[in-house]
């Protein structure tokens, strides 16, 4: 049985997630005069960072200010925004979205832009300093800490790549193996590290040394302290794909977690269900996420337009009087 819903809770598109990807999709849809709602739980991935970098015209802007501007822009085009969390989503012809606050909303198309969560290494002090002088992306923060004494906290063999990358911003780099056995590193890894001038320090990291609210060192379990001013870590990425899975979207395994299979526009394997930003891939920076949201929004408008036109053509065919003829065949 089809459920009855308040028409005020029916939208053409619901966007789940109010970050760069979700707001960008909503902006395009609002400008296309689509009745659109953004549901924002208020948990942006880059909240710990003081600034965002690498976004042309927005370089150095605080993430909170960036999102505030985005919310103002979508409001100009009649896009609704609600601060709430989606707790369930299912299909009943259209998509039915249930909010934590109790409302159930209906949408013809659904965009999931819920991003991912960074799980940090359980080393005392790392979480407290994350986004300040404990960092993970040199493209996001390398310039701001350039020429300082860098540390890299190993989380696996891939951390060698991170240590090699950051030498572009500092020639004083130390790779702390932490719980990684040096035997896990290949001969090529070791030769590259040596060529790059990266020092390799074995031994478990016990914590950070902070003086006057600044990172000054890395302390090992044996009590030794290595002076460092910035520490790069590799968080474990946890994609927020629960809603996509619930709706039947196919996922693909990557070294960084399971992400939905999407086409070049962001459409998943479920018709009408889209993914954008870090909900669709690990490596989407803010500028990339905004681009993916824009592309999805434009594609959704086209999908809705053609669906409505095809429905009108079909309805017109059904309404044609029986026996009616046209053209030369009717002469």
From TrEMBL:
Please provide the record's keywords in A-Z order.
Flavoprotein, Oxidoreductase
Q: Does the keyword Oxidoreductase apply?
A: yes
Provide any one GO MF term from the record: thioredoxin-disulfide reductase (NADPH) activity
Q: Which reaction does it catalyse?
A: [thioredoxin]-dithiol + NADP(+) = [thioredoxin]-disulfide + NADPH + H(+)
Positions the record marks as coiled coil are none
- The FAD/NAD(P)-binding domain covers 11-293
Cross-referenced InterPro entries? FAD/NAD-bd_sf (IPR036188), FAD/NAD-binding_dom (IPR023753), Ferredoxin-NADP_redctase_2 (IPR050097)
What Pfam family is a match, any one?
Pyr_redox_2
Tell me what this protein is called: Thioredoxin reductase
Instruction: Report the source organism.
Output: Streptomyces longwoodensis
Source taxonomy: Bacteria, Bacillati, Actinomycetota, Actinomycetes, Kitasatosporales
């Amino acid at each position: 049985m089809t459920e009855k819903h308040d028409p005020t809770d029916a939208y053409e598109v619901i966007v789940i997630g109010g970050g760069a990807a979700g707001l960008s999709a909503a902006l395009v849809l609002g400008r296309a005069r689509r009745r659109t709602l953004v549901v924002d739980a208020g948990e942006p991935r880059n909240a710990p960072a003081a600034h965002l970098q690498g976004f042309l015209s927005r370089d150095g802007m605080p993430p909170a200010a960036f999102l505030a501007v985005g919310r103002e822009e979508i409001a100009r085009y009649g896009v609704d925004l609600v601060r709430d969390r989606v707790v369930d989503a299912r299909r009943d012809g259209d998509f039915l979205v249930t909010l934590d606050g109790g409302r159930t909303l209906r949408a013809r198309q659904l965009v999931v832009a819920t991003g991912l969560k960074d799980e940090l290494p359980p080393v005392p002090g790392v979480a407290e300093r994350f986004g300040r002088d404990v960092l993970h992306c040199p493209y996001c923060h390398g310039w701001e800490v350039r020429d300082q004494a860098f540390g890299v906290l190993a989380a696996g063999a891939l951390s060698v790549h991170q240590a090699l990358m950051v030498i572009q911003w500092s020639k004083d780099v130390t790779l702390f193996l932490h719980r990684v056995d040096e035997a896990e590193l290949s001969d090529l890894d070791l030769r590259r590290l040596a060529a790059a001038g990266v020092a390799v320090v074995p031994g478990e990291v016990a914590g950070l040394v902070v003086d006057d609210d600044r990172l000054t060192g890395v302390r090992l379990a044996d009590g030794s302290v290595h002076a460092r001013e910035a520490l790069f870590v590799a968080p474990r990425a946890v994609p927020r794909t629960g809603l996509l899975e619930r709706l039947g979207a196919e996922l693909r395994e990557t070294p960084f977690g399971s992400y939905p299979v999407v086409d070049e526009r962001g459409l998943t394997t479920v018709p009408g269900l889209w993914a954008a930003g870090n909900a669709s891939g690990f490596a989407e920076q803010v500028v990339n996420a905004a681009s993916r949201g824009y592309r999805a929004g434009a594609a959704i408008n086209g999908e809705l337009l053609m669906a409505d036109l095809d429905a009108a053509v079909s309805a017109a065919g059904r309404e044609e009087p029986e026996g009616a003829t046209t053209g030369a065949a009717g002469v």
